[in-house]
Write a structure and sequence with these properties.
Largest sheet: 19 strands, parallel
Radius of gyration: 33 Å
Structural class: alpha/beta
Shape: elongated
Oligomer: single chain
Distance between the termini: 87 Å
Number of helices: 3
C-alpha cells in the first residue's frame, strides 16, 4: 500500500509541475503578446501623430498665405516682426487623444512688392501622450502670384447684361484668331467664357437675356446673386443657368497700381496721328519706349491712325484728358507692337477701335485710379470699336456697347462695374491665364524639410 501511495503522490507532483510549467509558458506568452500589443499601439499612435503633423504644418502655411494676401495691420495680428520683411508666429492645435501640436511659422518677405516672392516655413511639433521623444515635421513653401486675368470679365460690384444679343465665350490666342479653323478640325471658339462678381448681393450679376457660354463665379454661397429673365450660363447647348456652371464663394484681390517711373522717358503732350516710337528715341533698360502724354485724341477718317510699331508705354498722368477714338480713326499695333497705357482718365474707344495684330496681352490699359481717391473713371467700347486687350481698372466703370457691324472685345477686363449692352460680344482669351501678375499669392512649390541640412537655414527663425 505504501508503494502504491508513493506512486500516486509522485504522479500528482508531476502533474502539478507540468501544469506550473504550462502556466509559466502561457504567462510568458501573454506577457510578450501584451508587450507587443502595447508596442504596436505606441507605434500606431506615433504614426498617427506623425502623419497629423503634416496637416498641422500645412495649417500654418495657409494662415501665412491668408495674411500675405489680406495685408494690412490686422492681417498680422499675433505675428511679430523679425526684420523689415519677415514675420513669425506660433500657435497650438488640438490633435485629439489629449495631445496638442505646437506650430511655429516664419514668413520671409511678408510684405511683398512686385519684385519679391514670399517664402513660408512651418514647423509642427508634438509629444505623444504615450511618451517617447517629441516628433517634428517641417514644410517649406514658395509662393507665386496668380495672374490677374484668369477670368474674362470680373466686376467688384456688379456685372450687368442689357438688351438682347449679349454673349460671352472664349478662344485661345496661342492657336490663332477667334473662330479660325484649326488643324485637325474644329474652330478656335469655345464655351470656356467666364464672368465673376465679388458682390454677394442678390442680382449683383444680372445676365438678363444674355448668354455666358462657360461659367459664372459669384461671391454668394448660392446662385441667388445671379438674375436674368432668359439667362443662359453653361456649355454650348444649354437653355438655362446650369447649376454646375455656377461657382460660389468667389474671392479675388485687385490692388491699386501706379504708373512706372523709368529712367528714360519722353514728354510729348497730346497724341494724335503719329508713329511711336519716334526716330531717334531710346528705349529704357527694359526695352520699352516711355512717353508721358496729356491724352490721346483721334477722330476723322480711316487715315487718322496712331501707329505703335514697337514696345511702347504711354503714361497719362492728367486725369482730365483721357483717351478718345471716334469717327473712323484708330490705334494700330503692328506685328512688333506692344502697347501699355497707364491712365486715370476717361477712355472712350469708338471709330475703328484698336487694331492689334498680336495677342490681347500685347495691348493693356492699366487704371491708376486708386480706391482711396474716391474719384471716378469710365472706360467704354462702342459702335464698330474693336478692342483686343486686357483692361485692369478695379475702380472704374466699364461699358461695352454693341450694335456695330464689327464691334467686339477680345481679352479680359476687370472693373468696379461692368455693363454689356445689346449686341455686345466678349471673347475671353484663355491664353491669359498667367498674365498680369497681380492676383492672390498661391503655392508655387511645396517641400518637406526632412534633413538637418535643409532645416539649418531656418532654425534660428523657428526656434522660439
Amino acid at each position: 500500500m505504501k508503494t502504491q501511495s508513493h506512486r500516486l503522490s509522485s504522479q500528482r507532483g508531476s502533474v502539478l509541475l507540468l501544469a506550473l510549467v504550462f502556466a509559466i509558458i502561457i504567462a510568458l506568452f501573454l506577457g510578450g503578446y501584451l508587450k507587443l500589443t502595447v508596442s504596436s499601439m505606441d507605434t500606431a499612435q506615433r504614426s498617427f501623430f506623425y502623419q497629423s503633423l503634416l496637416s498641422t504644418a500645412d495649417g500654418g502655411i495657409e494662415q501665412a498665405l491668408w495674411s500675405v494676401n489680406t495685408g494690412g495691420t490686422s492681417a498680422w495680428d499675433g505675428w511679430s516682426t523679425v526684420s523689415p520683411n519677415g514675420r513669425r508666429t506660433t500657435f497650438d492645435m488640438d490633435l485629439g487623444q489629449n495631445s496638442t501640436a505646437h506650430v511655429n511659422v516664419w514668413v520671409e518677405e511678408a510684405n511683398p512688392t512686385s519684385g519679391t516672392t514670399p517664402t513660408i516655413v512651418a514647423k509642427a511639433t508634438v509629444t505623444p501622450p504615450g511618451g517617447g521623444p517629441p516628433m517634428e515635421r517641417w514644410v517649406k513653401v514658395t509662393a507665386r502670384r496668380q495672374g490677374a486675368f484668369t477670368r474674362g470679365l470680373v466686376g467688384r460690384e456688379s456685372v450687368t447684361f442689357n438688351g438682347n444679343g449679349v454673349t460671352v465665350d472664349s478662344y485661345n490666342s496661342d492657336l490663332g484668331a477667334y473662330n479660325a479653323a484649326l488643324t485637325g478640325g474644329g474652330t478656335n471658339k469655345y464655351d470656356h467664357g467666364s464672368v465673376g462678381v465679388l458682390n454677394a448681393s442678390n442680382g449683383a450679376m444680372s445676365v438678363g437675356n444674355g448668354q455666358v457660354w462657360g461659367v459664372a463665379a459669384i461671391a454668394a454661397s448660392d446662385a441667388t446673386a445671379i438674375s436674368g429673365n432668359h439667362a443662359i450660363v453653361g456649355p454650348y447647348g444649354s437653355t438655362d443657368i446650369v447649376a454646375s456652371a455656377v461657382q460660389t464663394n468667389f474671392t479675388a484681390t485687385f490692388p491699386d497700381i501706379s504708373a512706372p517711373t523709368p529712367a528714360v522717358s519722353y514728354t510729348v503732350g497730346a497724341l494724335g496721328v503719329t508713329t511711336l516710337p519716334r526716330s531717334g528715341d531710346l528705349p529704357n533698360s527694359d526695352g520699352y519706349y516711355y512717353y508721358n502724354i496729356s491724352g490721346i485724341s483721334l477722330s476723322g477718317n480711316a487715315s487718322k491712325v496712331l501707329h505703335i510699331d514697337d514696345k511702347v508705354v504711354l503714361i497719362n498722368a492728367n486725369a482730365l484728358n483721357g483717351i478718345s477714338v471716334t469717327g473712323q480713326a484708330s490705334i494700330s499695333l503692328g506685328a512688333q507692337g506692344d502697347l501699355q497705357i497707364y491712365t486715370a482718365g476717361t477712355v472712350s474707344i469708338g471709330g475703328n477701335g484698336v487694331t492689334n495684330e498680336n495677342a490681347p496681352v500685347k495691348c493693356a490699359i492699366w487704371s491708376t485710379l486708386t480706391t482711396a481717391s474716391g474719384g471716378s473713371q469710365s472706360i467704354s467700347v462702342s459702335g464698330n470699336g474693336v478692342l483686343s486687350a486686357v483692361v485692369y481698372a478695379p475702380n472704374a466703370t466699364l461699358s461695352l456697347n454693341g450694335g456695330g457691324s464689327g464691334g467686339a472685345v477680345f481679352g479680359s477686363m476687370i472693373g468696379k462695374t461692368i455693363t454689356l449692352n445689346g449686341g455686345a460680344e466678349f471673347h475671353y482669351d484663355e491664353a491669359l491665364g498667367s498674365a498680369g501678375n497681380l492676383g492672390a499669392w498661391t503655392i508655387q512649390s511645396w517641400t518637406e524639410l526632412s534633413k538637418a541640412s535643409e532645416r539649418a537655414g531656418y532654425a534660428s527663425q523657428l526656434n522660439f
